[in-house]
Amino acid sequence: MATDVIVPTLGESITEATVGQWLKGVGDTVAIDEPIVSLETDKVSVEVPSPVAGTLGEQLFEIGATVAVGAVIARVGEGAAAESAPAAAAAQAPVAAAAASPPAEFPPPAGDEHAADRSGAGSDALRLSPAVRRAVLENHVDPSAIKGSGKDGRLTKDDVLAAAQSKAPSVPAAPPAPAPEPAAAAPASTGERREERVPMSRLRKTIASRLKEAQNSAAILTTFNDVDMSAVIDARARYKDLFEKKHGIRLGFMGFFVQAVALAAKDVPSVNASLDGDEIVYHDYLDVSVAVSAPKGLVVPVMRNADAMSFAQIEQAIAAFGKKAKDGALTAEDMKGGTFTISNGGVFGSLLSTPIINPPQSAVLGMHRIEERPVVKDGQIVARPMMYLALSYDHRLIDGREAVTFLVRVKEAIEDPTRLLIDL
């Protein structure tokens, strides 16, 4: 009996998703809670697990199709050996075709005394699922010569593809036909121009839509400043070993900047506010959206109550978000909310940029790479590790004086981290 695989609840206000990738093919064995398909929502990718152990019997939607929450997306046949009746029937057709077509037969390799036993009809190892059998036929490999990695030594589709790529023993081919008479050599192709069209993912479409919405609806302006990173660099060098030993995480720059933003937001609360129609919404908390690079684009998970977090908690949260983004494990809840954004383009080598605000937020702080530049200190030209800071803000809510004051407060806290301890 087949069990329906349902599209789960994907998060608040998310009613549909796009089929991004089938992680299991029809006929593949799946374990309970093993991911079957990856769905792309407006915010994150979600893997849908199998509710039972068995064999994937049907895929009801193609890659790129839109599916609604609660829809049946696949069916899984129950049982350990779980090939459902339709799957078994589908398996018999390739068997008959293989028997009737000489190139599709799989004779045992010469000199192998046990090959006949392995290729017998009762062998569990060679009881091929439809997907595996199809891969065998398409790649012309000998399944009896491949070691299966599945349950009870069964072959999987990946085993067949790996054997084909490594030039595993294949079906003996007929002698090649004599080569035709050489024709006149065609001129070598140089400067070939190619184009490739790839549909935008749902996440990329959402990013494009929201960024354009921000430009169309907000009066975005950017103000700049530079900051001497000497004090922060010295503090990290002095305490990084003790910090890592105590907290199990490296001391980075983000903890200093998050706390500097929290301190500056107390003096300039409009930077941490948002517009809702004709009303200004002020927040007595700081939920920082931290821009993180994911395989399918830039995402902004949220650190809740960042103003109350310690350096260690901030660094641990950043590390956890980075790992989840890399693994595609961020959830819609991770992305929900946020009152202010920090984007660190410096990790990619950016010298200067004008970041775009993340609606309904009203401001975003852009960090950039650190490089030594000549500056004047006490009448002397000296080299200092400098970083450019950029604050983009919605001029409808935040005046230029407030934006500059906020950025100066951040600069002062970074250049003299003691201010973070005594709330100055």
Kindly list the characteristics that best describe this protein.
OB fold (Dihydrolipoamide Acetyltransferase, E2P); 424 residues; 19 strands; 4-stranded antiparallel β-sheet
Overview of this structure, please?
The protein has 424 residues and is α+β, with helices and mostly antiparallel strands. The protein has three domains: 2-78, RNA polymerase II/Efflux pump adaptor protein, barrel-sandwich hybrid domain (OB fold (Dihydrolipoamide Acetyltransferase, E2P), Beta Barrel), CATH 2.40.50; 85-165, no CATH class; 202-422, Chloramphenicol Acetyltransferase (2-Layer Sandwich). Helices cover 30% and strands 24% of the residues. It has eleven helices and 19 strands. The protein has helices at 85-100, 115-118, 130-139, 157-165, 202-217, 230-247, 254-267, 311-327, 332-335, 400-415, 418-422, and strands at 2-6, 16-22, 29-30, 35-40, 45-49, 54-59, 66-68, 72-78, 220-228, 274-276, 279-281, 288-290, 292-294, 297-299, 302-303, 340-344, 363-367, 370-377, 380-394. The strands form five sheets. Strands 9, 12, 15, 16, 17, 18 and 19 form a seven-stranded mixed β-sheet that branches. A four-stranded antiparallel β-sheet has the order 1-8-6-3, with no helix packed on it. A hairpin with a 4-residue loop joins strand 4 (35-40) and strand 5. The radius of gyration is 30 Å and the shape is elongated. The model is unreliable at 80-125 and 168-175 (pLDDT under 50).
